[in-house]
């Protein structure tokens, strides 16, 4: 059934992406926060977050 192939691949990609984000969410979030923190914040007072 070639018509079901794109749907199955799309669902597979979505599942892989969700699993990847779920397994690496904490590391990715910490990395993103550090990146934004070092790029946009030069002083602790300018940080939107308490930490």
From TrEMBL:
Q: Where are the transmembrane segments?
A: 12-33
Please identify the protein, giving its name as recorded.
Answer: ATP synthase F0 subunit 8
Q: Which domain of life is it from?
A: Eukaryota
Could you tell me the keywords of this UniProt record?
Membrane, Mitochondrion, Transmembrane, Transmembrane helix
Taxonomic lineage: Eukaryota, Metazoa, Ecdysozoa, Arthropoda, Hexapoda
């Amino acid at each position: 059934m070639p018509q079901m192939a794109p749907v199955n691949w799309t669902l597979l990609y979505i599942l892989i992406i969700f699993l990847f984000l779920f397994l690496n969410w904490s590391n990715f979030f910490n990395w993103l926060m550090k990146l934004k923190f070092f790029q946009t914040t030069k002083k602790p007072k300018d940080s939107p977050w308490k930490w």
